[in-house]
Design brief:
Helix content: 40-55%
Pfam family, one: G-alpha
CATH superfamily of the largest domain: P-loop containing nucleotide triphosphate hydrolases
Number of domains: 2
Order of helices and strands: HEHEEEHEHEHHEH
CATH topology of the largest domain: Rossmann fold
Protein name: Guanine nucleotide binding protein (G-protein), alpha subunit
GO molecular function: G protein-coupled receptor binding; G-protein beta/gamma-subunit complex binding; GTP binding; GTPase activity; metal ion binding
Number of helices: 7
Keywords: GTP-binding, Metal-binding, Nucleotide-binding, Transducer
Distance between the termini: 76 Å
GO cellular component, one term: cytoplasm
Length: 252
């Protein structure tokens, strides 16, 4: 019994040692797997997007809603004398959208635009509901937004970038045109004042017409920054467009 007991003890010891080796190998494999996933995550294709728009356009709300829709969002602020930048990243499948939300200082534009040479896309947010509003200087707020878009889209440093326009606050716009006729503020509008489709299309055409770069398409999306589902659909559409453009540029 003594010999049998000793053999059994040695056998159990060997078995335990083998199990420890197996567990250690499993942990190593798990660590390697996590490391590979981390490296793969880091290697995701990143598309940089410049987010611009006048104050009150709703672009900050868009970023906040995207942070809710995409739980993997990361955000950080950068400040300087030229501008303030809120940088947010969102992972969509095998790619990452890095959005740079910029608060514009008009007098410093030439300086800060030169900092974004590696940005491939610009999203410009305009509030449709501003069509009957006036700025502190007495200008029509929507016309000011279109002038800002003109100065950015046709700037030498951005004129070859792909441009997406979010015509935001569609829900507010729909309610307002029923009581505040669009044709009173934009006399060249010929559609029925209460027709949402005609009114929204009018502004889409206005923004497309501002572009002076030949063969560059202006991608228009109607948005409600406070509607997460609508914003998710819009973001997916923008993401698809970016992927398609990259495939074309790569000759695929």
């Amino acid at each position: 019994m003594g010999l049998l007991g000793n053999n059994f003890t040695r056998w159990m010891g060997l078995k335990a040692a083998k199990q420890r080796e197996k567990d250690e190998a499993s942990r190593r494999d798990s660590d390697i797997g996590r490391q590979l996933k981390l490296e793969k995550k880091k290697a995701k294709k990143t598309f940089k997007i410049l987010l611009l728009g006048a104050g009150g356009s709703g672009k900050s709300t868009i970023i906040k809603q995207m942070g809710i829709v995409y739980s993997n969002a990361l955000s950080e602020d950068e400040r300087s004398q030229m501008t303030r930048i809120n940088e947010s990243s969102f992972e969509l499948g095998s790619t990452k959208l890095q959005i740079l939300d910029v608060d514009i200082q008009e007098t410093k534009r030439k300086k800060w635009l030169s900092c974004f040479e590696d940005v491939g896309y610009m999203i410009f947010v305009a509030a449709l509901s501003n069509y009957d509003q006036h700025t502190a200087e007495g200008h029509n707020a929507m016309r000011d937004e279109m002038m800002l878009f003109d100065s950015l889209a046709n700037d030498e440093q951005l004129k070859h970038k792909s441009i997406i326009v979010f015509l935001n606050k569609l829900d507010v716009f729909e309610k307002k045109i029923a009581v505040s006729p669009l044709s009173e503020y934009f006399t060249d509008f010929n559609g029925p004042d209460t027709n949402l489709c005609a009114a929204a299309t009018y502004f889409a055409d206005q923004f497309r017409g501002i572009n002076k770069t030949r063969n560059r398409e202006i991608h228009i999306h109607y948005t409600n920054a406070t509607d997460p589902k609508m914003l998710q659909v819009t973001t997916a559409s923008v993401h698809h467009m970016i992927i398609q453009e990259n495939w074309r540029s790569a000759g695929l």
